[in-house]
Structures are given as structure tokens and as C-alpha cells.
Design goal:
single chain; mainly alpha; three-stranded antiparallel sheet; 52% helix; 7% strand
Length: 428
């Protein structure tokens, strides 16, 4: 029997269908609400609005569940690679050995960036934020590859090319910002190793690979590969709904991710730890300030808007953080402050009552710092990891038979009709 929600408005009843997802989550279908009743819904932030039907990622914030295409993120973090997870998200299934091998070959074949792109990078002011550069460069890729994407094969080619080049452009932006020689991708290195080598190799000091570092980066990217309909993913879908090219849609996602309330959160964690260190390392004072409702200070990296229990990604990232720091014998005063804050958050009744557990950003900021990633590159690292999710969401929206251009409504609160007054008749 089909479920309905009955809406009574001005003495008349309307039946609104209830949609049921594969995990039994439910939503009210209001597609005809305005046409039938003249009403719209009011939902700032769209926290109660389902803007699409999707088969990519399932998350349950109450139970701490995150799955890509049905596979728990814990299993992917333990057994998979970032390349394989990317293939899963974009294509809807895990690849065969031959498919993964061909995917890897294509990623290597398209890693190089046009030399004119390097000129673009070099013309940005040296103080430019890497996220601004990356967003501009992704958008500029359309100029270098203007061909239309029509067939499935052409779309897959464009998608793979973007995955390959974003990693190269990110490392290139870092090298140029340092005034260093650009390091080109090597065909003999895997995806993560190639990025680390392009970031840190110099002619006088070749980059020495540490397995724990490579694995930590791999897991970081896997955990950030998709996260349902978040701010940046919604930006990709909304911009993409205008039927723009893939590069423009992804560029919009990068810009949305840049904000401190979204992708910039792990950078904000390290900046917060640095500030506490500069103030004498008094983490207890920071905790008390965070509890004070009249104090604007916030502890970054604690709690999550969606997860009401422990962030499942945080559990994985915590273990990866512990393993990495042990392998590197990493000593850092900020790490000591982070450990003290973590202990407080896991035991203090205030944090427990308000579900303010350390989230994935708390641990990932420490991991990236230990790897040697500069703080202003943290959000770029997030963007590389989130790229396959954005691509998958873009592809799904393009294939949606219910597609329509995004066009939210509003409740107008401005003046009613007001007539124009000539300038010589207006008061001072």
C-alpha cells in the first residue's frame, strides 16, 4: 500500500506521496505542491530538502554509517585504493583487474598538463591561495579541451583526464608558489606516489617514499571521496543543471569547498592549534571558552552537522594518524595540544552530551601536517579526494530522466509595489 502525507490547507486536503529509499529512509514528494496548492516550502540551508534521487552514497548521521555504492567506507579504507574507489564511485561498481589496469594506464597517460597551463600558474600573484588557482585552472581546461562530451566513451575519457590532471595541477601550483622547478609525473609511479613525488622531489633531494605516508594519503582521499549532498556537491549539481561542461561544474565545487565551514575545516583545525600554542598552550582555557555560549571562540574539528554520533571516518583517520606518527616519530607541539583536546572531548560530559566528538577534519589536519603538506594546501588535498564523488554526482544528474534546471523559490519580504520618485522630488 502506497503511503501518503495529507496536507490540509484552507479546508482542502491534498495527498502527497511518500518516497522510500533502498535503506528505508522516507521523503515527502512535493513536486506538485506549488501547482496544486500555490504553496512552497521554506527550508533555509535545505537541511530537510531532498533535491535528487541518488544511488551513489548512503549516510546515516544517527548511526554513523557511510557507504559508497553500498560498500562501507571502513572496508574500502582497509582494502581498496583511491583509484579503485574512484572507479567504483564513477562507474557504479568495482572494476575487474583488466578494467583497473586500463584505468591506471589512462590516468598515467593523461597526467601531463599543457605547457601553456604552467604559464597561467606563473602569472598568478605569488600570495594567491592554491584553491583559487585550482578552481581557475580547472575551469580553464575547457579552453584546452573544447570538444563536446556526448557519448559514454567521450565522457569517460574526459572524466579520466580530469582525474589525472587535477593531481598534477595541484602539485604544480605548490611548486610554483615556492619558486621551485616543476616536477613532472612519472609513468612508473602509482597515483598517490606520483603526487607526493611531484610535491616534494627536488633535484638535490629525491623524495624518499615511506609506506605509511603513502597509505595515509590513500586513506585520506578515500574517506573524502564523497559525502552525499553536501555544500560543494550541491554546487556541482546546481551549476551542472544548467548543462554547463564538466570543468565548469567541478570548478564551482572547488570554490564551494574552499570555505572554512566546509573543506577548509582541516586547515582551521591546525590554525586553531597554532593559536592555542602561541597563547601558551593552555588547551584547558580553550575548552572553557568553547563551553561559554557568550564567547565566539569555537573548537574546530569537533562535532559534525550530520553525524550525531562518532564520525565513522574519524575512527579510521585516528588509527591512520596514530600509525603514521609512530612510523615517522613525528614530534610537534601542536600534536601534544591536539592529544590533550582529544582526551577532553572523549571524556568531558559537555562534549559527550552535545555529541562534540573529534571529527575527520581533526585527525586529517594532523595527518596532512605530518606528511609535510603546507597548511594552505589542506583544502586542495580535500578537493583531489572529493573529485571522483563530484564527477559521479555530475554524471548521475546528467543521466537523470527527471532532470530539470535548479531554480529554488523564495518567500519575498521586501516592500510592496512602490512607484518611482524623480530625483528632484526626493528628500535629502
Amino acid at each position: 500500500m502506497e503511503d501518503y502525507v495529507t496536507l490540509t490547507y484552507r479546508g482542502k486536503q491534498y495527498q502527497l506521496p511518500v518516497l522510500v529509499g533502498s535503506e528505508q529512509e522516507r521523503g515527502v514528494d512535493i513536486l506538485r505542491l506549488r501547482a496544486d496548492t500555490g504553496l512552497i516550502t521554506y527550508d533555509p540551508g535545505f537541511a530537510n530538502t531532498g533535491a535528487c534521487l541518488s544511488s551513489i552514497t548512503f549516510m546515516d548521521g544517527e548511526k554513523g554509517i557511510l557507504r559508497y555504492r553500498g560498500i562501507p567506507v571502513e572496508e574500502l579504507a582497509e582494502h581498496s585504493t583511491f583509484k579503485e574507489t574512484s572507479y567504483l564511485l564513477i562507474n557504479g561498481r568495482l572494476p575487474s583487474q583488466e578494467e583497473l589496469r586500463n584505468f591506471s594506464i589512462m590516468l598515467n597517460d593523461h597526467s601531463l598538463v599543457h605547457e601553456d597551463m604552467k604559464t597561467f600558474f606563473q602569472n598568478f600573484p605569488r600570495a594567491s591561495h592554491p584553491m583559487g588557482i585550482l578552481s581557475a585552472m580547472v575551469n580553464a581546461l575547457r579552453s584546452f579541451y573544447p570538444e563536446l562530451q556526448t557519448t559514454e566513451e567521450e565522457i569517460n575519457f574526459t572524466v579520466t583526464r580530469l582525474l589525472a590532471k587535477v593531481r598534477t595541477m595541484a602539485a604544480m601550483s605548490y611548486k610554483i608558489s615556492r619558486g621551485h622547478t616543476v616536477v613532472y609525473p612519472r609513468p612508473d609511479l602509482a597515483y598517490c606516489e606520483n603526487f607526493l613525488n611531484m610535491m616534494f622531489h627536488t633535484p638535490v633531494k629525491p623524495y624518499a617514499f615511506v609506506p605509511e605516508v603513502v597509505r595515509a594519503l590513500e586513506v585520506f582521499w578515500i574517506l573524502h571521496a564523497d559525502h552525499e549532498q553536501n555544500c560543494s556537491t550541491t554546487a556541482v549539481r546546481v551549476v551542472g543543471s544548467g548543462r554547463v561542461n564538466l570543468y565548469a561544474a567541478i570548478s564551482a565545487g572547488i570554490s564551494a569547498l574552499w570555505g572554512p565551514l566546509h573543506g577548509g575545516a582541516n586547515q582551521a583545525v591546525v590554525e586553531m592549534l597554532s593559536q592555542i600554542h602561541r597563547d601558551g598552550g593552555d588547551y584547558k582555557r580553550a575548552v572553557e571558552r568553547a563551553k561559554d555560549k557568550n564567547d565566539p571562540f569555537r573548537l574546530m574539528g569537533f562535532g559534525h552537522r550530520v553525524y550525531k554520533t562518532y564520525d565513522p571516518r574519524a575512527k579510521i583517520m585516528k588509527k591512520m594518524c596514530d600509525d603514521l606518527l609512530a612510523a615517522l616519530d613525528f614530534q610537534d607541539p601542536l600534536l601534544d595540544i591536539a592529544k590533550e583536546l582529544e582526551e577532553v572531548a572523549l571524556k568531558d560530559p559537555y562534549f559527550i552530551d552535545y555529541n562534540l566528538y573529534p571529527n575527520v577534519d581533526f585527525y586529517s589536519g594532523i595527518v596532512l601536517r605530518a606528511i609535510g603538506i603546507p597548511t594552505n594546501m589542506f583544502t586542495v588535498m580535500f578537493a583531489i579526494g572529493r573529485l571522483p564523488g563530484w564527477i559521479a554526482q555530475w554524471k548521475e544528474s546528467m543521466d537523470d530522466p527527471q532532470w530539470r534546471i535548479s531554480r529554488p523559490r523564495q518567500i519575498y519580504k521586501g516592500p510592496t509595489e512602490t512607484h518611482y520618485v524623480p530625483i528632484d522630488q526626493r528628500g535629502q
